[in-house]
Amino acid sequence: MDSRRETAVMLLKAALATVVAWQFTVLVLKSPQPFYGPMAALLVVDKTIVRSLGASAQRLGAVVVGMLVAWAVGSAVGVHWWSMLPVLVIALLIGRWRRFGEHGIQVPVMVLLSLLTAGGTDTHFTYLTIVETLVGGVIGVVTNAFVAPPLHVRQPRAQLQALTRRLGELLGQMATGLREGWDAEDAHRWYDESAEAIRWAPQVQGEIETGRESTRFNPRETLSRLDIDWGGYADTAEAVRRTQWQISGVARTLVDAADDEPWLPPPSQEFLDSYAAALDHIGVAVGHFGLVEDSERATVRHELVAASRILDDLGDRVREARLDDPRAWPAYGALIVHGKRLARTLDQHHDRAVVPTDSGPIRQVRRWRTHTPGST
């Protein structure tokens, strides 16, 4: 189910819950003003059942607190112009409590409404308002849970696949460019793409968290017995985000070198050819990254070891060689350091990372592997 269809279904469920709550408050509770129940049902239908439960609890808590404050003020001093200001200030402060979330505004609203319409002392009004809110929240939660229960599984899987694929493609473009010829425009494009991936990764992490949350208390999750390694997905997204920092550092170094900065001449072509080979190995590792089979894990480790060896060799050669332009040593050093960090980051995460395959089943089971730090 794509995002537009999910949004349409959620809107229809919110409308259905609102109508059901309205009819319930009119026909069963005999409410003369059936407002609070439908409003509660409308506002608690959310992307996941967990969020619906949380919103229902927040709204009910805010309404109860607001009604109690109004009742206390109305019973103690009554409704006067001089009592409204401090009461509303207190209600607004209470409503800002983070536990109430976006429903905190209900505290001052209920205080004002109760004081102005019932003087804060009408027990029947207070009781009926609280019951309506509770019933509306329950109807909203039940509707969200049993009418096309929200299960956000395919969206985070697709986005995670796209994120890792984007990383591999960028590494391939950089390796080919460094080997066959590159210029300032290429370096700027690589830098912009890496920066965009850094911004995109947290969104993917948010989708993964929404997917994980959508399986809780979900009757569809119970029936289909999904066993998705959400932790593995999250580790993958975090690994990609961290590797993009290093790729961005590589691209930034190349940007400065390509822009004819006098303090940072570009590295030699011989160096860049070897560096491109290291990026090729890392790109191959990314192509197998997060796949749970033993052979895939072994391929990732093998490619990262190969890349690290090339980078170590480049470091030795730079230290021992006499550079044609001594001002170029920061570019050599920066590229080597970022390359090593890139390989090390992938190595640190690849035993825990999980990337769903295009044709594989939704079911994913975490498989742990013994890993020795520094094996690259």
TrEMBL record:
<dbReference type="Pfam" id="PF13515">
    <property type="entry name" value="FUSC_2"/>
</dbReference>
<feature type="transmembrane region" description="Helical">
    <location>
        <begin position="105"/>
        <end position="121"/>
    </location>
</feature>
<feature type="transmembrane region" description="Helical">
    <location>
        <begin position="68"/>
        <end position="93"/>
    </location>
</feature>
<dbReference type="InterPro" id="IPR049453">
    <property type="entry name" value="Memb_transporter_dom"/>
</dbReference>
<keyword id="KW-1133">Transmembrane helix</keyword>
<keyword id="KW-0812">Transmembrane</keyword>
<protein>
    <recommendedName>
        <fullName>Integral membrane bound transporter domain-containing protein</fullName>
    </recommendedName>
</protein>
<dbReference type="GO" id="GO:0016020">
    <property type="term" value="C:membrane"/>
</dbReference>
<feature type="domain" description="Integral membrane bound transporter">
    <location>
        <begin position="21"/>
        <end position="142"/>
    </location>
</feature>
<feature type="transmembrane region" description="Helical">
    <location>
        <begin position="7"/>
        <end position="29"/>
    </location>
</feature>
<keyword id="KW-0472">Membrane</keyword>
<feature type="transmembrane region" description="Helical">
    <location>
        <begin position="127"/>
        <end position="147"/>
    </location>
</feature>
